[in-house]
Amino acid sequence: MMYDQTRAQQPSDQPRGSAARRAPGPEPLIPPDERDKIVRRLGRALNTFADTPRQSLEEAEGAFDEAVAQLTAALAEQRRALRAGWQSQEPGTQPTEPQFALRQYREITQRMLRL
User: Fold this and answer.
1) Which residues contact 7 (CB under 8 A, 6 or more apart)?
2) Counting Cβ atoms within 10 Å, is residue 81 exposed (0-12), middle (13-18) or buried (19+)?
3) Is there a contact between 2 and 49 (Cβ–Cβ < 8 Å)?
4) Who's near 41: CB < 8 A, 6+ residues apart?
5) How many CB atoms lie within 10 A of CB 13?
6) Short-list 19, 27, 21, CA closest to 9
7) How distant, in Å, are the alpha carbons of 17, 18, 19, 25, 52 from that of 47?
8) What is the DSSP string of the chain?
């Protein structure tokens, strides 16, 4: 079993499970089931390093590559959706869609810079 530092730091009276881990805020860029697969893959790499260092490094690299691919795809989709929203606006129309898009660009960019 892999050591979970976040879980270990939770007070004992805090409920455990997915509801306890869900913080308020924007949806995660990587769906939880895909994120869990990557985390398990990385955990296997960490847990087997002593016995098979080269295979562990290859597994960790694969987990890293998968995370990068998932993030790249998610960010590209968000960019596509935002761009489609504001590019289809006629000049002189209500500024609500462009303002919304600008806020979304700012929030997504700030999330990436906090990583």
Assistant:
1) 16
2) exposed
3) no
4) 59, 62, 63, 66
5) 5
6) 21
7) 23, 24, 27, 32, 10
8) ----HHHHTS-TTSPPSHHHH--SSSPPSS-HHHHHHHHHHHHHHHHTTTT-HHHHHHHHHHHHHHHHHHHHHHHHHHHHHHHHHHHTSPTTS-THHHHHHHHHHHHHHHHHHH-
* Mean pLDDT in order along the chain per 10 residues (115 residues): 53 47 71 95 95 96 96 93 82 74 89 79
The rounded distance, in Å, linking the Cα atoms of 62 and 70 is: 12
